[in-house]
Amino acid sequence: MRQAWRWFGPDSPVSLDDIRQAGATNVVSALHEVPIGEAWTEAAVRERKTLIETTPAGRTPLAWSVVESIPIPDAVKRRGGEAKAEIEAWIASLEAVAACGIRIVCYNFMPVVDWTRTELDFVTPTGATAMRFDHERFAAFDLFVLERPGAAADYSPEDRARAKTVFEAMSKAEIAEITRIITSALPGSTTDPLTIPGFRDRLAAYRDVDAEKLRRHLIAFLKAVTPAAEARGVKLTLHPDDPPRPLFGLPRIASTAEDYAALFAAVPSPANGMCLCTGSLGVRADNDLPAIARRFAPRIHFTHLRATTREGDGRSFHESAHLEGDVPMVAVLRELVAEDRRREADETIVFRSDHGHRMLDDLRKTVTPGYPAIGRLRGLAELRGILHALDAPPT
Q: Is 355 a catalytic residue?
């Protein structure tokens, strides 16, 4: 397996030398500065690849192995195959990436919001901080800040009562903070920052899009783009929903094993693959992660390895240390290693330590939410230790 690190480009607080010092050899990156829906050019991709892969004297070489992500425009999620111009621009970006020798592309199909949290610095018992999703705070935002039409129907009377109590106890600063967190584009997001009225408008645009229709739109997108990917040897890897359940009345269609099975049955191309994110899928107690890894092993080309802890209500959770929480990481890695050993060297699975606690010096720095250097370094070291114990040292 190839150990990787997500890098947000030249302006990131984490440098390429930091990545080398963490022990990673592969880079996961994207042209985050390109507006969503605009085609990437081969020249721009090659410039970024040259920056990553030009190795100073005496330094460890790095390889840009995974693009995460080429964002899918909102029009594709709402209109499917009818969004022809947007799909053609996405294919052009894919072709630019392939021309530069990058063979794995990660993407997601979450409408309006990307990964969603209510807190970015939840204090853990060690004093490190983690990202957290608090169901009651989320419901308070949905019902009483956003005031989404029809939201009450998505919550039980008990949920609504608790959400009201939570909302009434929130200060103006707390309301502003949760609004900022939820409505702002987070790293890797496919959304632009939204005002509350703008958020309502975006949600309203999906009024007639249920899970069945959203799945049809994803299948139409895949049928349009997989021939180009297959012809160029590129593997497309769909990231799971995060959290893996409907939010704001929006459907989610990449939350369970059966969701993925339906997509692979509809588009059996070998280019149609999976990003196994243990943290996202692990939020649901009914997702058997080792079984998912085993079932879809040939279609897993990229993995996000992190752990989450489900809290008492079964709907709240927080990011835990990589070998703690509810993810059976050793069992998952055992399945991935078994698959990896069946592959040629240039087809091995790329993994990265996903997210990480904010800890040590990072507590005193400005960091990218979810992506502090030290917490991810700890996570990568722990994962590397498991691989050594499984007699499968990473490359």
A: yes
Q: Give yes or no: 354 in active site.
A: yes
Q: Quick one: which of 314, 366, 316, 373 has its CA closest to 122? A: 316
* Beta-strand relationship, 104-107 and 307-310: unpaired
* Catalytic pick among 277, 318, 326, 340: 277
Same domain, 166 and 210: no
Look up 277 and say whether it is catalytic. Answer: yes
- Active site includes 357? no
Burial of 157 (0-12, 13-18, 19+ CB in 10 A): exposed
Catalytic residue among 142, 242, 259, 354: 354
* Model confidence pLDDT, tens digit, residues 157-191: 999 999 999 999 999 999 999 999 998 855 444 45
Domain that holds residue 357: 2-115+202-389
pTM (two decimals) = 0.96
Active-site hit among 134, 355, 357, 362: 355
Which of 192, 222, 242 terminates a domain? The answer is 192
